[in-house]
Design brief:
about 350 residues, mainly alpha, about 0% strand, cell membrane
């Protein structure tokens, strides 16, 4: 009978755990981002807590406010600007439907070898604009739906970021107690190796954070060099923008592609070609080399495990997979190593 009671308690606990995970499922991604941000900036939290005389809640509030000012507000501003550009593009399409295309820009005719042909194509499109718009009209709805879906994703991403910044306050304030709680749970599950695996997860996340930030800094410096050589105005600001965009997948081209287009618009074709090649092979190319190296540096994981974790995690989970993928593979690899070493060794054959 006692065994039946114990089994019933275990079933109830599992049911409660499953229900709790179900309730928390919509917030898992925001919780992970909050935990990663808090862990990556924990030295800053400890320093601020010491400066404030050990007042953890005040330090957590100030640091969270700083993240809101540095991250959330610029993204909200970017979202509003994007909405304005979408509105301007919609107005441009409506004007083209009524008045046709404007006159071809003067620089278009000056493009070497193909300038006159491009002007002729521009005039042909202008003359046949009504027929062209009638042809592509069935597809405009699909494009609109695609833009609407992307806008919804951007909005949900900003909401998720805001939630993660709310959660990061509690991770700052209660971080040591949460770490002790997780350590006790792991100790009940896997015994004396609990602290080792907790350090393994923490070290892997720290190396990924270092890899992401280090790669973003390298791309920003390389972008600044390219902008200065090409003579793009506001090179320093664009370098800072490149650093911020480097924190998201495929972000740096959003900085150097418009700069390349601006150079071409100004007739600087040589510099436009240079910046396009520099951005493709140097700025964006360094991500594929430097980030895996920095993530694997200082750990005992094979490089192939790191590469599979980084790229497989991105494909499976999105940007958060950059942290989840290497962590999962690191833990699985270590578990398999422990299991293989603890098994009986077969006697050598004679």
């Amino acid at each position: 009978m006692p065994n039946n009671d114990r089994l019933l308690v275990q079933i109830i606990l599992l049911a409660l755990l499953g229900a709790g995970l179900w309730v928390m499922a919509p917030f898992i991604s925001a919780l992970l981002w909050g935990a990663i941000l808090a862990y990556a900036s924990w030295p800053l939290m400890r320093l601020l807590t010491r400066l404030l005389g050990g007042r953890e809640t005040l330090a957590a509030g100030l640091l969270t406010t700083l993240w809101i000012l540095l991250v959330a507000l610029p993204l909200v501003w970017l979202g509003f600007n994007l909405a304005d550009h979408i509105r301007d593009a919609t107005a441009f399409v409506r004007d083209v439907q009524v008045d046709g295309l404007p006159d071809a820009p003067s620089w278009l005719g000056g493009v070497p070898l193909v300038g006159e042909r491009l002007v002729g194509m521009w005039d042909t499109i202008d003359q046949q604009g009504a027929a062209l718009l009638t042809t592509i009209k069935p597809y405009l709805g699909q494009v609109g739906n695609w833009l609407l879906a992307r806008s919804a994703q951007i909005g949900s991403g900003i909401l998720e970021l805001t939630l993660s910044l709310v959660f990061v306050f509690f991770f700052y304030r209660d971080g040591p107690r949460l770490a002790a709680f997780v350590l006790r749970l792991l100790d009940r599950l896997i015994g004396e190796r609990a602290e080792y695996y907790l350090d393994l997860v923490a070290g892997t996340v720290q190396r990924v954070v270092n890899g992401v930030i280090g790669t973003a800094a390298a791309q920003a410096v390389l972008a600044l060099i390219g902008f200065l050589i090409a003579g793009v105005p506001g090179a320093l600001v664009l370098g800072i923008v490149t650093f911020m965009l480097s924190l998201i997948p495929m972000g740096p081209p959003l900085a150097w592609v418009p700069a390349t287009a601006w150079l071409a618009w100004q007739g600087e074709y040589g510099m436009a070609v240079f910046l396009g090649l520099w951005g493709t092979f140097i700025i964006s190319g360094v991500d594929n080399v430097l980030k895996p190296y920095l993530i694997s540096r200082g750990g005992n994981l094979p490089l192939v495990i790191v590469l599979l974790g980084v790229f497989g995690g991105l494909l499976a989970f999105g940007f958060i997979g950059l942290f989840i993928g290497p962590t999962l593979l690191a833990v699985a690899y270590s578990l398999l190593l422990d299991w293989s070493r603890s098994g009986p060794v077969a006697p050598p054959r004679t």
